[in-house]
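Justification of resources, computational component.

The compute hours requested in this renewal are based largely on the per-chain cost of generating structure records like the one below. Each record pairs the submitted sequence with a full structure-token output. That output is archived, and it is also reused by downstream analysis tasks.
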Amino acid sequence: LSPRALILSDARLPAAVRHLRRQGHDPRLLGMNDSDSERSNGQISSRHLYLYLTSLVYQGLSRFVPLPAPLSSDLLDELARSLPPGEESAAEQNAARVLDALAQAIDGWSPLPGPEPGLDPDELCNQIESAIHQDQALRIAYWTAGRGELTHRTIEPHRLEQRGPVWYMVAYCRAARAERVFRLDRIQELQPAAADSDEWSPEFDQE
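The structure output for this chain reads:
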């Protein structure tokens, strides 16, 4: 995908991780096997619990999109009553984590632009492409639509994508410690960052 991002088959993943660790790197793995997934979700096993969790997540999607068929509260209450003691709360906590992760993942793809015009997208594309090829971290002032505020981040750009007339940057955000998507028209400030430094110049404040 770029000098910093690639697609790797599952079969070759363990060997790639071992190689990177021998080279002194600490690869970030965005996936879990079934046993890890079960442990992190409280070892969900009951069919009713899965159904209740799925229903909560589906109902929670109304935060992002109109639902074609909203679930009735009576149905959710009936599913909750079918669960053993304590599992209702576990399902609700897991559903909240899923929806929070979804909100983080789609924030950059939101159709809402920033509150004021940002930098010139063409110039930003040139600077970002140069940073990608030079393996250069960047520091940006970014309008985060999900929170309605200007945030300041150090990022490691991976690639540029265009959807319709809008350009996006996929990058690793050091503040979030995860990959994030940034709309170029929401970037208010951009400057190179030293690879071994997280300090901002005076006009920037850390998030």
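The mean pLDDT is 77. DSSP finds six helices and five strands in the chain.
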